[in-house]
Input
Amino acid sequence: MNNQSKYTEELLRFLENEENYPEMIEWIEDLPELDQPDVFREMEAIFKERHLKTGEQDWLDKANLIASGIDDFEEEILDNKLDKALFMMQFDNIEINPEQAPLFLIEARKVIIKVILSNPEDIKEMWKLAKKIIKLEKEAGIYDPANWIEIL
Output
């Protein structure tokens, strides 16, 4: 391959044997999210090159299958990153009307718990936010550890 990425060697190692595929998927999932589409593009290129070398249709079919989902996958990752950034921006320098504070804190707590339980890659950011919300709950006199039991 002429245009090798930093993941080419590792991908080639995984692709030597189909028994390595589950391990390869785990490896890809452990990579930074923004790198994952590039890894799939690299895999597509490897499969196309193998098709050109061998003439086997199976390689081209695999390449086309991967290619068909890369853009949507990347778009989903970018949308999630944007949503997270916008969500976090809402809490920067926030001023809450005292009468609405309990309702706001309840809703924020629900969202934070949901994100922590469903998106392990966001735990660090969400824990920072959870600590801020817990502090606000304590200041407002509505803190109850039972409300946070799912993640504490």
Observations:
- The CA atoms of residues 17 and 59 lie 14 Å apart.
- The chain has two domains: 8-78, 90-148.
